[in-house]
Structure formats: C-alpha cells, structure tokens
Amino acid sequence: MLSDSFGREVTDIRISVTKRCNFGCVYCHDEGLGPVARPRAAHGEEMTPAEVERLVTVARELGIRSVKFTGGEPLVRTDLEEIIDRTVRQIPDVSLTTNGSMLAARAETLRDAGLKRVNISVDTTDPEEFRSIRKGALAPVLRGIRESLRVGLKPVKLNMVVFRRTLPNIPRMIDFAGSTDGLKLQLIQFMPELVHHREWMVDMQSVHRWLEEHSARVLVREMHHRRVYIIHGAEVEVVDPVFNPDFCSHCHRIRVTHQGELKGCLNRKDDRIPTRGLDDLALREAFRQVITTRIPYYGGYITDLPPQNPSPQLSPGPPRESPSRATV
Ligand code: SAM
Ligand code: SF4
C-alpha cells in the first residue's frame, strides 16, 4: 500500500466515467471539470471499459481496495455494466454514486455485473423542491431507491447536499432514511469552491450540535474522520470537508477524471496526471507520483483558512412530534 509524505495511505479510488448529465443541479461542481454538458455531448473523450480496467489493475497492485464510480451522471453510459464487470475482476468492492433517475431499470443488471452498493443523491422528499434544485423529477429517483433495495445494493446511501435551501429538510430526511431498512443518510457540506455562491454555505458546527443532541450514539469513521450519528432509527453520516484540515488529514482517496487523468485531490486542478498512451511501467509511475505528491488541501495546500463560520448561524428545525414517514 502506498502512502503520501503526510502518512496518508491510499486505499480508495473514485473514477469519473463521464462529465455528461441529464440533471442540472444548482450546486453542481461536476467533479471539478467545469459546467455540466447539457444537452448531451459526444463522448469520444471518455475512457473505454478496457482503459478503466487497466487503471484498476494497477490500482489493485498498489494496494487500493475500493472503487467508486461517479460523473457527471455515470448512468448516461450504456456500457457501465461492462465497466463494472471488468472492475470487479480486479477489485471486488465497487460502488456507484448516481442521481438515481435512470437507475430502476438497471439496478438488477448492475448488481449482476458485480456492483455492491449505491449512493443516490436526494436533497428533499418534496417533488417541487427537488425539481427546483436538481432540474429533474423525484419519482424515478424514488423508484431507483426502491429497486436498489429490492435487488440488494445495500446499504443505499442517500446523498443530501446541505446548503441554505436544504438545511430545514434535515429532520424530514432523517425520518425518510429511518423509515426503511437498508437506507442511510449522508449529509454533504455544500462546497463553494467551484460554483462560488459562498453565501449558500451553512454553519456545519450547528448541524453537528443539533445531530448530537438528538442522537442515541455517535461514531467516527477512519475515512475523512467522518462523524456518524445514530438518530431516530437512522444512520446519519456527515461529510464536511470545507475549511476542515482534520477531514483532509484522514483522506485516503485518489481520483480519476473521465479522460483518465489521475488526481490527488477533488479541489485541486493543478495535480492532474494524464495516463492515456502510457505503457505499464509509466502508468505505475504515474500512480506513484500522484500518491506521493498528495498534499492535504485544507491545512496543507490552502493554509490561510478563512473564518470557520462564514454564514449566519442556521440550524435545522426541531424533530417533529409525528414525523411524516415518506416511504420508498
Ligand atoms: N450525478 C451523480 C449524482 O448526482 O449523484 C454523481 C456525480 S455528483 C457530482 C456526486 C455528488 O456530489 C452528488 O451527491 C452531488 O449531490 C454532490 N455535489 C455536487 N455538487 C456539490 C457541491 N457543490 N457541494 C457538495 N456536494 C456536491
Ligand atoms: Fe451534477 Fe450529479 Fe446533479 Fe448531474 S446529477 S448536475 S452530475 S450533482
């Protein structure tokens, strides 16, 4: 297993298979690759399944033990099953982050190809609010969640981006996650770096405090030192990287763009290493280089941290007496 000079072992790789997407979320950072391509663009630049397999083979040799596919929207690719099939031959622990809108029809074939789990992005259970934030329909996403649970792609993690508009939804989303076995909620801090709108940020410390007050138990995961709250029968994980050196110092992940460039950090644009056309020796060397030159973004790359509470204190509303049970 390789470590960087800050002692961070790299165990995990996140691979973008496209930058295309059928949604247009107001906060989308598109993995740092610029605006989402709408309408759908040609996809000659995207890695082929064989290219993905080659990268994953080297990743396994270097000790990487889990793969997450992302995008853009990975399900715009009709060959995602083939990509997953080739990947699990090298690294069995394969998961997927998706907007869920095209998932229901493919959950079973994805599972058969070897997919183990899914993250499905849902910020609200209100269809109108969902459309206003994500520019797409909620109903197919709920069908995708249901179908994923049915075919055993568990746990299904619901990714909710926490920003001004969604903050009041947290109690309802906790009810939603707690209403069905196999669902977990992941609260993702809005990252302003690539879409600006810093005024959309909320104070995550007040979210942590609120969760702690209402939790039966609190755990801490090694990856990113993420806190996990057991609350109202739901498991709620908080992913809060912004201005958080502790998060960065526990990051064990490298990334690959849809064009096959290696990246040591989501937030940096200056650390891409192209791999297309490299022979096996040079490809291994590129992996070593991207890993050994990783720098914790906050508290390493960005050392001049802005104030920790850049927005007014906002806190989610109190837990409701009779929570409305949105079921999937
Ligand atoms: N299209 C897929 C989806 O929406 O799940 C996968 C790609 S998307 C870029 C991956 C995750 O990043 C999603 O859960 C999305 O909600 C989240 N995301 C997008 N923009 C974000 C931002 N500015 N801050 C925090 N999370 C963001
Ligand atoms: Fe971005 Fe995912 Fe939303 Fe598409 S669905 S716009 S990739 S966050």
Would you tell me the overall average pLDDT?
89
CATH architecture designation = Alpha-Beta Barrel
Bound molecules: S-adenosylmethionine, iron/sulfur cluster
Radius of gyration: 19 Å
CATH fold category name = TIM Barrel
Per the principal axes of the C-alpha atoms, what is the gross shape? globular
SS summary, helix count: 9
The CATH class name reads: Alpha Beta
Largest sheet: 12 strands, mixed
Calculate the terminal CA-CA distance, rounded to whole Å: 40 Å
Task: Explain briefly what this protein structure is.
This protein is α/β, with parallel strands linked by helices. The protein has a single domain, classed as Aldolase class I (TIM Barrel). It contains nine helices and twelve strands.
Provide an overview of this structure.
It is a single chain. With 328 residues, this protein is an alpha/beta fold. It has one domain (12-301): Aldolase class I (TIM Barrel), CATH 3.20.20.70. 27% of the residues lie in helices and 18% in strands. It contains nine helices and twelve strands. The protein has helices at residues 49-61, 80-88, 107-113, 127-134, 139-151, 170-178, 204-214, 245-249, 280-292; strands at 12-16, 66-70, 94-98, 117-121, 156-162, 183-189, 217-220, 227-231, 234-239, 253-256, 261-263, 273-274. The protein has a twelve-stranded mixed β-sheet with strand order 7-8-9-6-5-4-3-2-1-10-11-12. Helix 6 (170-178) links the parallel strand 5 (156-162) and strand 6. Helix 1 packs parallel to helix 2 (80-88) and helix 2 packs parallel to helix 3. The longest helix is centred in the N-terminal third of the chain and has 13 residues, at 49-61. The radius of gyration is 19 Å and the shape is globular. The termini are far apart. The model is unreliable at 32-42 and 319-328 (pLDDT under 50). Iron/sulfur cluster is lined by residues 21, 23-25, 28, 30, 36, 71-73, 99, 134.
